[in-house]
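Bug report (template v2)

What were you trying to do?
Predict the complex of my protein with glycine.

What happened?
Run completed; filing so the output is reviewed.

Input:
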Amino acid sequence: MPTRRTFLGTTLAAAASATQWTAAASTNENPMQPIILSTWRHGLPANEAAWPVLADGGSALDAVEAGARQSESDPDNATVGLGGRPDRDGNVTLDACIMGPDGNCGSVACLTEIENPISVARLVMEQTPHVMLVGQGALEFAIERGFPRRDLLTPNSRAEWEKWQAEHPDAVGQRQINVENHDTIGLVALDAAGDLAGACTTSGLAWKLPGRVGDSPIIGAGMYADNEVGAAAATGVGEAVIRAVGSFLVVELMRQGHGPTDACRLACERVVAKNPDWRELQVGFIALSKSGEVGGYALQPGFQYAVRSAAGEELVDAASIAN
Ligand code: GLY
């Protein structure tokens, strides 16, 4: 299925081809053209929050954090951060990870009461010898670092959860996520210095079993960045992504010479091979190569990703395995 691209805002320069951007060589004398891409339509405002960082010559790492924070702080986004749908028991638990060009990475899982888990993940990366903190330990770490506690249930998400609970009194967790309704945000960026970074953040599956953690905070599953090759991020049913170690796979396929779209397609085929029920679930990947090419692919139609560069902003309808 051909990729359909929706052009938004300023008109993209004709030089931005329909399928790829090509950046200049990675040297200080010949700087790269910065670019960021993010999963889903809510990637558009996230990219807009990140773009000033890249446009001002800032780092890809700062850019993906800024973009992720925008999504996390949007109370109307029901799948990320504040206002994210809670677990079976009404607790909002957040997962996030971040990875920089030096290969360092940080992650938090099952974090409660903190609006911006991506920034906690960054401090895990920068201020601890660890990669991942979970649950109460992650919360205590965040509080020690000055993050304010707040109730992440909004009136809307509370009402939605109460309705679901009333309709499913005996539920033992649910894969509410299906072919069309999951919206984890993953972001990958290339900065003017030619460095790559990635981030991923989510409230996970709605009405999940307490303690459930998906792919988003798992380095290599929800996101992976290798500064020699490229970066990738995943969205969709986390269990299916974990089984394929999806984002790492996309980057390794790029290392073998596949372009970003082809690498994402092949990773989707791996997800299909590992998940017999693949027709009932959605998984999507986005990828960015070291040279600035972008791509995405999904199991099911409907997956979109947002791209922002100096040429403007764009929302791309990704091709998919199923029609
Ligand atoms: N991809 C997000 C999750 O499954 O939690």
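What did the reviewer find?
The radius of gyration is 18 Å. The chain has one domain: 11-320.
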